[in-house]
Request: fold
Amino acid sequence: MEQITIEMLKSKKDSYIGKTVQVTGWVKNYRESKTTSFLELNDGSTFKPLQIVIQKEDQHKISAETINAAMHLGVAVSVCGMVVSAYHNADDAEINAEKITIIGECASDYPIQKKKTSLEFLRTIPHLRMRTNTFMAMFRVRNALSMAIHHFFQDHGYFYVHTPLITGGDAEGAGESFQVVAPDFPGDFFGAPASLTVSGQLEAEEAAMALGRVYTFGPTFRAENSNTTRHAAEFWMIEAEAAFTDIHGIIDVAREMIKSIIREVLAKCPDEMAFFDHFYEKGLVEKLRNVADNAFAEVDYTEAIEILKKSGKTFKYPVEWGVDLQTEHERYLTDEYFKKPVFVVNYPRAVKAFYMKQNPDGKTVAATDLLVPGVGEIIGCSEREADYDKLITVMKDRKMNLDNYTNYLDLRRFGSVSHSGFGLGLERMLMYLTGISNIRDTQLHPRAVGELK
Ligand code: 4AD
Ligand code: MG
Reply:
């Protein structure tokens, strides 16, 4: 007898109708009537489960004891039976069970029960919450999103580069890194203090000066002492870097990437996205379709400050030209004012990183953040300062230790060209795509201050 996955059965339904097959999976739901028992089985290959129909009068085939043992959430079973069209939906298939074998019993204190459990509770059992519909949908979308990102860059001539995770210092000067130490090794293992990367950008720039267009996609670590719903200590970041490209060029790339990945995820995960639309954000799919099909807003930082001042809102952090935008400001701009994704461009240089290209006004840099409704910032982006003298002046002003940046400065000495890039937070994008409002629910094992489950 052919052993098949539920995905094979559902996608090639017509070729299996009338055949006897074997499927394996976990019981996701069960119910019974007088004459019939029903199991919903999933092996992970599809989001929607497969219905198994068990006729009770056929007890010469399947014992009452076996049926009872199978009627528990979380039990792993193997089912043999004939494939038929589903009673309620002729496009779907179900199996009339002829034999059931219990593969793995599930202890009675299994915490995933029929009653809907809160996301807060599920965070206490990260090893089991994967089995809920929410997390099965999340991780299927996370997979599709990751592949969509690769597809976009591969289709646009970008090379995937792997930048180091252990770095020789706080590369961005953000001061939020984790140290890497080998406690049993005498002295510094690497001969100098080492930390986990906060961004692969500075190394991606090196690669872009040879390959032209590159992107990274990997884990990133920040010891941010902010216990928010949008910050994780370990997250995944995608960083694109393109030579011979200015700020306008890279904004085009970032926007087209967002549109393209939304389209691909909607196409690859219709059932999962319908689930998030139903349970987490009504109108989600429609919203995303609109985003994929329409223009994004673009506003100058200076104008954004005026909009915020005229909003009539009392913000916790007062608004004045020169301040960095806080989440509350970002959310007003994107949720209430523009009501769509917005690139805020030309931030004051003092609130942004040293490497950003200085604008001729002497006050701002060619940098932009992409803000989206419901989440706030999902992309940080800028043209890089390609002029050696200007860069070194800023670094000296900021009292940076130039010895740590000789490689980076060399890029401005040997064939320097205009170049730009951006970083997209994978989990922030997932929040936007799914309507899930806490970053902890986009990761298998979230890491944040005081959290290491
Ligand atoms: O804005 P950020 O700090 O930009 C950079 O790191 C640049 N080097 C990117 C570049 O130009 N190559 O971070 C980029 C994005 C943010 O917009 C956000 O989506 C995400 O990374 N991010 C975080 N996501 C989760 N938890 C955190 N603690 C995050 N910090 C940043
Ligand atoms: Mg940022």
Observations:
- The chain is about 30% helix and 25% strand.
- Residues 129-442 form a domain with the BirA Bifunctional Protein; domain 2 fold (CATH 3.30.930.10).
- The chain has two domains: 2-104, 129-442.
